[in-house]
Amino acid sequence: MKKIILPIASVLLFSGFLSAQVGINTPAPKTTLDVGAKRDASGNITDNTQLLGIQAPRLTRGELTANTASYGTDQKGALIYITDISTGNTTGSRINVDTTGYYYFDGIVWQKISGGPGAVNIYTADGILRSNRIVTMADKTLSFTSAATAGSNHFSIDGATFSVDTFANRIGIGTTSPSAILNTLNAVGGSTGDVFATGINNCGADCNQNAARNMVVYNTNGTSSSAGSIDFVSSTTSTGTSASVIKGIDRNVGSNFGGLAFQTRGDASGLIDRLVIKSTGNVGVGTTDAPTEKLDINGNTRIRGLVNGSDAANFPRSVVAKADGTLGYSSLSMSSFQLIIPPHNQYTSDFNNHSNTAYDSDGWWVISKSSVAANVTFTTTGSGFSGSSSPYTTTATNITPARMTIIYEYQGTPFADPGKIYPQLTTGNNQTYPDVYNPSFIKLETIGGKTRMTVSIVRSDNMLNNWAGSFLLNTLFVVKN
């Protein structure tokens, strides 16, 4: 059989005179151009050696690049087949021509025809997203399933930024081999934070309800006494032994009660409760048993930086312990001062209204002093001499020792209830004199917003002399609470 090659335009023109539809190898075309295989009169293909198909113009990307024809909207739908991409470029209308295969012209650029050898999709080959895309799901769902039997990084975004291990059902952030249900790894270090939990609704009803929380740790095992834990590992792997733990304890599923335990590992004994907060509000330090008080400490205790109290302003209360270790306030509190006893009037004039400030001491002023001089009256009796004996007897009949009444005024916070304060007075000798004095408390009162104490000082070692020096008055105020 001879082949006759005619320009297709001639064939179509000739056929156009006969029919509005053109058929090749078919007597009854169903479309404008209907190309069929060669068949016999019964419609069967008898020649199985015939080459079937329609071929679009075949050219390389280099040849398409060299083509200077101007393609526009009139060429929409034009079809070509790229046989090679080793030459030419992907500029202009050829931006998508990066693989071999069929392309059609959409009026602006050449587009791949999906399904051909040159078509690229996520199911058959890697590709490049040429522009922004949005997936509108409406009321539909988008799911990814996996039947992985090994490996870890079965779905990922930007490498380790987000990785899913569908075999072990784990998610990695910062790692492609997560070792826990959620494994975060900060490989940057420095000031880069690991995890942030933020929000404007992160505290429901002033934090007194279970709504709007930043992070939740809970246990699906309803019979466990632990609600979960946050573990800190000293080694460099997540599977290392826990070195310290914050653990939810004292769990009550029905009432939603719970407490906390802070545990550390310091020796071969393993994790030990160092601080326990029970659901009752009792706090235990150094005890693994349930704390029985609001603060239950098992071990020596040191408190640094205690404030020197002074009613509590003037009389800090003492803390004492019972035999079982329970702490409480003592029924007594005390405060002490060291005041000055001025010299007797014979040597330093008496004064009032704090006119002499030389004897102020330890926050107390000497407001006034009033002295009484020592005095002794002798009485002599007798009728004359008898031999060598004196006929007279001299007797001291009126003895008045030197004494002084002093009013002291405290310049600090006035004592709250002077009637419950019991001053204990002793004297001290800071001079070289051998003097001895006896103090007596007279009264304690509040005058003009100041606490005043009146005392009497008597010299007892020598009834005949007054005193020239200043001495000490040691004062201990005892308050019965």
Automatic annotation (TrEMBL):
Secretion signal, residue range per the UniProt entry: 1-20
User: Could you tell me the superkingdom of the organism this chain comes from?
Assistant: Bacteria
Keywords assigned: Signal
Q: Does the keyword Signal apply?
A: yes
Recorded protein name is Uncharacterized protein
Q: Which organism is it from?
A: Chryseobacterium contaminans
Its ancestry begins with: Bacteria, Pseudomonadati, Bacteroidota, Flavobacteriia, Flavobacteriales
